[in-house]
Specification:
It contains 10 helices and no strands. It is mainly alpha-helical. The longest helix has 33 residues.
Length: 210
């Protein structure tokens, strides 16, 4: 889009064509991500359908990325390519290995929008608190925000999850959990019932006070 804005007269249709290719790739990635999740642990009667959906999603991704690959190579070799377009294609070429890696890691977003949104809270909090003032508190804050962001990304309600964890610490004599007791609270180890419970808002009266 920046390339098109730099030369809107000559690159208008070039920009529109690339936006369409990118839109198709995003659609293919969304379907691949959904199909991959469905195929990860399907019900017994849905295994065949889930596998077929995943195979079709991979084929759609391959088609979308092949269109982009062909277009970038043809345009890079064409004489008279406008400089803004050439720079955009050079960036695509430089990042190509990272782009095609999404086929093997479909849960990784094609852009960093989610990461940018996720760090907004910590950044605002740091600003309101006027910074961490020393390295130890900065590292502690990073650990805490990493844990809460991971819980949030897996669909857990952070306050409910933290309240449940701190309650268990209280039952453990006020000491941090270790071993299996701690692993239970790792989002990727949480049981289905725990995950369902921790995804809900905290019960009235149990929200921690600020």
């Amino acid at each position: 889009m920046r390339a098109g804005d730099a030369n809107p007269v000559q690159l208008k249709y070039w920009t529109e064509a690339w936006l369409e290719r990118i839109r198709d790739l995003y659609s293919a990635h969304d379907e691949l991500m959904a199909a991959w999740q469905d195929a990860a642990a399907p019900a017994a009667q849905e295994k065949t359908a889930a596998a077929a959906r995943l195979e079709e999603a991979y084929a759609a991704w391959d088609d979308a990325i092949a269109v982009i690959d062909e277009a970038r190579k043809e345009q890079a070799a064409a004489p008279g390519l406008q400089e803004p377009a050439g720079k955009a294609l050079a960036t695509l070429d430089r990042e190509w290995d990272g782009l095609i890696a999404h086929r093997d890691y479909p849960l990784v977003s094609l852009d960093n929008n989610a990461a940018e949104r996720m760090i907004r809270g910590p950044v605002v909090t740091r600003k309101n608190a006027r910074g961490s003032h020393n390295g130890d508190t900065a590292r502690n804050a990073a650990v805490i925000w990493t844990a809460t962001a991971t819980a949030q990304m897996t669909g857990l309600n952070v306050l409910t999850w933290l309240t449940a964890y701190l309650d268990e610490c209280g039952r453990n004599g006020g000491k941090p959990l270790t071993g299996p007791a701690l692993e239970r609270f790792l989002p990727w180890h949480a049981g289905r019932e725990d995950h369902r419970t921790w995804a809900q808002p905290p019960p009235a009266g149990q929200t921690p006070r600020k």
